[in-house]
Amino acid sequence: MLDELGIGGNPINCTCETSFLLEDEYYSYEYTNAIPKCAAPPKLKGRPFTKVAQADACPAKASAERSGRFAGIFMMLLILVFCTVGVYFCIITKRWEAIVRHIQNPPLSYSNLASKEDQQGLEQDFQPRPQDV
């Protein structure tokens, strides 16, 4: 397993393929004698590797991250708007009270008898009615 790799003083292609060296906190360039410099692309040539932003080295990746972040924020706002409109609608139309009342007092009924005939048969079993004591 490789623990340490010294790349100080070497020219680096500062592109999307090497942008992982810029983003990760596991890479440290503080203890090298010579900080690596970018050899390509031309706009980054000669810049110290530690002074290059990931967005400069890989604009496509940076724009994808921005669009992903935008999509996440947009979805959260959309959910928030729908929830707000739903609560507002429930309060205005007084359905909120009906929903709360329905939850607190659900309509319950229970009958062990499957049909009217079963109920009549049961009533006949208890005829005549016993006297109260």
Give me a quick take on this structure.
It comes from Ancylostoma caninum. With 133 residues, the protein is mostly helical.
The low-confidence parts are none
What is the CA–CA distance across the termini? 93 Å
* Main beta-sheet strand count, sense and barrel state: 2 strands, parallel
Helix content: 40-55%
Can you count the helices?
Answer: 5
The value of Rg in angstroms is 37 Å
User: Which percent band covers the strand fraction?
Assistant: 5-15%
Strand order of the largest sheet: 1-2
* Classification by helices and strands: mainly alpha
Shape: elongated
- How confident overall, as mean pLDDT? 74
Tally the beta strands.
2
Element order: H for helix, E for strand? EHEHHHH
What does this entry look like structurally?
Among the domains are: 49 residues, no CATH class; 39 residues. It has 5 helices and 2 strands. Strand 1, helix 1 and strand 2 form a beta-alpha-beta unit. The N and C termini lie far apart (93 Å). It comes from Ancylostoma caninum (Dog hookworm).
Key descriptive features of the protein:
single chain, 133 residues, mainly alpha, two-stranded parallel ribbon, elongated, LRRCT domain-containing protein, transmembrane, transmembrane helix, LRR_dom_sf, membrane
